């Protein structure tokens, strides 16, 4: 005689009450200047300055290489 297994059905959780959210109306006049220039591309639109980033990367590289040199020197003394 085989055992009968009962399938358990999961009840879906009760849906949360949905409250309507008020949306504010945005005027298109605020976006009008950017929409007019969106079709034109020029070099002056996006010209980031990476001097600070270059300095930081150079400093990180110098620190990392100096730590590696210190670790290599310490490995000779600790043997």
Topology of helices and strands:
Elements: H1 32-37, H2 51-77
Please tell me about this protein's structure.
This protein is mostly helical. It is built from two helices and no strands. It is flat, with a radius of gyration of 32 Å. The relative contact order is 0.05. The model has no long low-confidence stretch (mean pLDDT 76).
Radius of gyration: 32 Å
Give the class from helix and strand content and strand pairing: mainly alpha
What count of helical segments does DSSP give? 2
Number of beta strands: 0
The major β-sheet equals: none
What's the helix-strand series?
HH
Low-confidence stretches: none
Gross morphology is flat
Average per-residue pLDDT, rounded, comes to 76
Helix percent band? 40-55%
Distance between the termini: 72 Å
- Estimated share of beta-strand residues: under 5%
Structure at a glance:
This protein has 79 residues and is mostly helical. The chain has helices at residues 32-37, 51-77.
Features:
79 residues, mainly alpha, flat
């Amino acid at each position: 005689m085989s055992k009968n297994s009962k399938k358990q059905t999961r009840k879906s959780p009760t849906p949360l009450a949905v409250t309507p959210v008020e949306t504010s109306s945005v005027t298109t006049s605020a976006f009008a200047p950017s929409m007019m220039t969106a079709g034109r591309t020029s070099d002056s639109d996006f010209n980031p300055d990476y001097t600070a980033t270059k300095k930081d990367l150079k400093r990180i590289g110098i620190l990392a290489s100096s730590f590696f040199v210190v670790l290599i020197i310490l490995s000779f003394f600790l043997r």
